[in-house]
Amino acid sequence: xxxxxxxxxxxxxxxxxxxxxxxxxxxxxxxxxxxxxxxxxxxxxxxxxxxxxxxxxxxxxxxxxxxxxxxxxxxxxxxxxxxxxxxxxxxxxxxxxxxxxxxxxxxxxxxxxxxxxxxxxxxxxxxxxxxxxxxxxxxxxxxxxxxxxxxxxxxxxxxxxxxxxxxxxxx
Length: 171
What we know:
This protein has 171 residues and is mainly α. It contains ten helices and no strands. The chain has helices at 13-26, 29-36, 42-52, 57-60, 67-76, 80-91, 102-113, 119-133, 137-149, 157-170.
């Protein structure tokens, strides 16, 4: 059984996979996510979300109904690991035109260009911004201008590479 106490420890890849396998066996991805994603102990929330990132896209689709909660978590948490993991899950969920949130789009624009942000978060925000903007041609122009204006020497190779790919897609 997965308990809060169990999720408090320092986790390895294998332990995250074990958590995922237990959640998969129960088939309750939503209940597990709701139970632990907002825990005041960031280690608990981090380990729970890490386990969920091991799920397939089909399994994660169960979390569609709480996507806004995951987005809110990403935008409000003070913990960068929880932010990255919740963004990772959101990025793997379906996104429709009528689900685009301007507050989340602004968040993604801010964090993809923030040179103080971790590269994983920058990259996820860039991917998500691209997906949201792809519904609206006028926003694609704004995305292109924002990405072109990034002073590329301040970014890590992964962010530079993704930036180049997205620029090819939007031109």
